[in-house]
Specification:
It comes from Actinoplanes utahensis. Helices cover about 65% and strands about 5% of the residues. It is mostly helical and about 625 residues long. It has a 5-stranded mixed β-sheet with strand order 2-1-3-5-4, with helices on one face.
């Protein structure tokens, strides 16, 4: 029998190698050749898609997804193929991770573009210039309390001499690759089959944050990769590994806590579920509970000592969302219409609705498979896979929050975490279905690849607006298209003539540019500082005395007014901040008189006037004078 086995695996008795051996020997070369050609074709299609979108031509969506799928689907096939070696599978996953970073890299290769990118880029720049951590950020106040990403980027820029942006791109590409490999390593801690591990990495890459949100310059982009590897270290420690795995977990946990609040909270919750399921299944859970306590204590201490405002920052994303959702369920207002006035093609919109259904079907199948195999599965794998099923189940109620204005942002940000549970739980089901087929390319394999493409398209469409994904002409009220030549010129003028670090009031979109490229400190309003009431006041109406006192006491110097607020409706339906008291009825939220009244106020001096942008300097010493607020 040994001789027969050797003959089968090494070669035939006449000296010629058998077909499987030949295929195994040339598989790496075939994979490299096919994926190189596919990557070149895919990259060219992505460039065509962006160019067509930039010039307002049709076909951008078709070209984009043709470019993505022409590489992704063959890469998936090579990753889960039976005959792929461990090295080939690793190389394919690395190539897949690099290619899936390409859409974001091509979208803005030279500088920040998304809302949070302006904030994080400015924060890293400030650290590079001043060498001081924990500085308050003018765009997103809380990120100064979490300097992990900014310190990393600024340190790399200092050591290499490259710009902050190019240092950030390098960090983010590495983080994206490590995230993809980390998901495979996490699944490998539960299931010994390397194909299951690769399938988990592929399924995770289908979540709505993978292509754009978790590739942007943001603290989650770095922290979520650290979370996955922290879970890998935790599982190794729980299984009885060396104490070094526990110390590695502690080190990664500290790094996560210092980088991103939400990721640290999710890490604690995920480990808590693992500890609970291990306890139920009667797997030794002392280490799991200890690591959960370490994570939770780290989060609590950091938020208490370093960032006590984090809770207040996160509250609107859930608290108000639940209130709006309850009102929606009761037949009241508070809902939002999905894809309202979207330019996304019909097939993308349908795919967005189909993707959660596919995820639900896959999760149900994974739960059934887990139940069927519960008697033969090793206890540790049974416990952890049950925890992953529970984590994945959180994805589905979160999708309902997308129907509320306040909950939409929080729902999107939760999907990157809950999809980790779906990926790890569903991967064994995918391999089980593929193993039923006797041929390398079968009907079930083709159906799974088609489903992979459908979910990738649908989740990406649900997670990001077209203006975030595609270039194009300036659009008022779009974070990604806020950097118009006029706003850039106004911010540059203020910086060159009045220096950096001035406190000013502005709308959301002007504030992005003045707070990043302009190096100023904008405030766009909040419940405790309702700066938007300056703009909402009608001519002749007195300004709120408490607000004026705040402006004076906090030493605000300038007011920026974008007169387009009286002419156009913001694309993302926000003028200042998520919970602003401004009606969104499809008509501009301001009148021309409300935005030109500042010319008549004695305590405001116009220092800059452009086609749409005006800048006023506060003169609080004139507040005691008689104010005539009628339009001139």
């Amino acid at each position: 029998m040994i001789a027969a086995t050797a003959s089968h695996t090494v070669g035939r008795r006449d000296g010629r190698e058998s077909g499987p051996v030949i295929r195994a020997r040339f598989a790496p070369a075939a994979a490299a050749a096919s994926l190189t050609i596919a990557a070149g074709a895919g990259a060219a299609a992505l460039v065509i898609a962006y160019r067509r979108a930039e010039w307002g031509q049709d076909g951008a969506f078709t070209w984009f997804w043709a470019g993505m799928l022409v590489f992704s689907l063959p890469a998936v096939w090579w990753a889960v193929r039976r005959g792929s070696s461990a090295r080939l599978r690793l190389a394919v996953l690395i190539g897949y991770a690099c290619f899936t970073y390409l859409p974001k890299l091509l979208r803005n290769p030279a500088g920040p573009l998304y809302h949070d990118e302006y904030a994080h880029w400015g924060q890293a720049n400030d650290i590079l210039l001043d060498g001081v951590l924990f500085q308050q950020n003018p765009i997103v106040r809380v990120i100064g309390d979490y300097p992990g990403l900014h310190a990393c980027v600024a340190s790399l820029a200092t050591l290499t001499g490259v710009t902050v942006w190019h240092a950030a791109v390098f960090v983010l590409v590495c983080a994206h690759v490590l995230l993809t490999l980390g998901v495979a390593a996490l699944a490998g801690q539960i299931w010994p089959d390397a194909r299951v591990a690769a399938a988990a990495a592929v399924v995770y890459s289908l979540n709505s944050s993978y292509l754009y949100f978790d590739t942007q310059l943001g603290y989650e982009s770095l922290a979520i990769g650290l979370l996955v590897w922290a879970l890998v270290a935790a599982l190794r420690a729980i299984k009885g590994g060396r104490v070094g795995w526990s110390w590695l977990f502690v080190l990664l946990t500290v790094a996560i806590v210092a980088t991103h609040h939400l990721t640290a909270i999710w890490l604690t919750g995920m480990l808590g579920l693992v500890a609970i399921t291990c306890t139920i299944v009667k797997v030794p859970a002392r280490t799991a509970w200890a690591l959960t306590a370490v994570s939770g204590l780290s989060v609590a201490l950091w938020m208490a000592a370093v960032s006590p405002r984090t809770g207040k920052y996160l509250e609107p994303y859930l608290g108000r969302a639940l209130g709006q959702f309850s009102g929606l369920a009761g037949g009241g207002s508070g809902g939002r219409t999905l894809f309202s006035q979207s330019v996304a093609p019909w097939w993308e919109q349908y795919a967005a609705f189909a993707a959660p259904c596919c995820a639900a079907l896959a999760a149900a199948g994974a739960a059934i498979l887990w139940w069927q195999r519960r008697g033969s599965t090793e206890p540790f794998a049974k416990a952890v896979s049950a925890a992953m099923l529970l984590i994945g189940a959180l994805y589905f109620p979160a999708t309902l929050l997308i129907l509320t204005p306040s909950g939409a942002e929080g729902a999107r940000r939760s999907w990157a975490f809950s999809y980790l549970g779906i990926a790890v739980a569903v991967a064994p089901l995918i391999i089980a279905l593929l193993d039923r087929a006797r041929r390398p390319i079968s009907g079930s394999g083709a159906l799974l690849l088609a489903g992979c493409g459908l979910v990738m398209v649908g989740n990406t469409a649900a997670g990001m607006n077209p203006s975030y994904r595609f270039p194009g002409p300036p659009v008022f009220g779009s974070d990604t298209r806020a950097a118009t030549p006029e706003v850039l010129a106004a911010s540059e003028w203020l910086r060159e003539t009045h220096g950096r670090g001035a406190r000013l009031v502005a709308d959301r979109y002007s504030g992005l540019i003045f707070g990043s490229y302009g190096e100023q400190e904008p405030a766009t309003g909040s419940e405790s500082f309702p700066a938007y009431h300056l703009y909402l006041a009608d001519p002749g109406e007195p300004m709120p005395a408490a607000l004026l006192a705040q402006l004076r006491d906090w030493r605000f110097q300038y007011l920026v007014v974008d007169r387009r607020m009286a002419e156009q409706v913001p694309e993302i339906k926000i003028y200042f901040e998520n919970n602003e008291p401004i009606p969104h009825t499809g008509e501009p939220g301001f009148t021309s008189a409300q935005l030109t009244k500042f010319d008549t106020l004695p305590w405001l001096i116009k220092v800059y006037d452009g086609p749409h942008i005006a800048i006023y300097r506060f003169d609080f010493d004139s507040l005691g004078q008689t104010v005539h607020m009628g339009a001139r």
